[in-house]
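Quick one: structure tokens for this chain, please?
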Amino acid sequence: MDGLVRYAHSAWVQHDLKTLAAIGTTIGTSSHLLYWMHGLRAPHSAQIFWFHVAAFCLITALSAFSHGLANGIMAASAICWSYLAGVFASMAIYRIWFHRLSRFPGPLASKVSKMHAVWRARHLNAHNDAVAWHDKYGDFVRTGTSTIFHVFFDPVSDNPVPRTDGPHGLLSRGGSEGHGR
């Protein structure tokens, strides 16, 4: 560990942007693997956002102080953007191949981000997309990072009834406090 710290310090002193970017990517990937993928972080999203803003500002200020304004901004940008690239690349790889719902078929963009659903709903015809996905992928379709869309037949009317179950749906294994929402 001491050797890694010395190597990072020498990259900082020598202003080696490639090494600083590699360090940022490694920290981003590690933060996803060790922190982000273990539990729900949505209730703390504002604090997480402001922590990142503060950390990026601190890195920029330290870089500008030690390397000059232009070189400092370049070094801070290399670290910060590669950190974000590492986090999001690690998230995408995990959600596509290693997530517990990765075996369910569905659009690739839906597996990576919930923003795909927002983009698809901009024309207010998400129900048509759901029917098309049902026809293309089958009865169970992964429509979000942690959301499964499935169709079951109503025994009374013998009609297909679409249903979406997310983290707090009836099919989830969460506690009873999530079922009343």
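The first strand starts at residue 140 and ends at 144.
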